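Morning!

This is the sequence you dropped in the shared folder:
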Amino acid sequence: VQLVESGGGSVQAGGSLRLSCAASGFTMRSVCMGWFRQAAGEEREGVASISSDGTPRYADSVKGRFTISKDNAKNNLYLQMNSLKPEDSATYYCAAAWYPVCLVLKRAMYNYWGQGTQVTVSS
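The structure's back. Tokens below.
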């Protein structure tokens, strides 16, 4: 199993970024996928998840600004981030959970992780 994130970078507040996660070794069609983030000195927190049937969930802090999606044919996961704020700055991680329905955005519920991609939002 391998998860590889890309798309991070530096952007000014109000800008947008699109993160991608390429999965291999399993099919994304059957499992829960999530995006997490971790700022320096902080706990890793859940940002968004998408169940095998495409149902999304979002943390309150990103609702209305971020959109999670996936392409089952390409086995890719995405996170479209709009109206970015400085507090969104963090390393963003893609994760996979070995069940079809995403119940909670908790780190402990996920089995596999990518290496992360850095997002920096300047004011």
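Headline: The radius of gyration is 13 Å.

More detail when I'm at my desk.
O.
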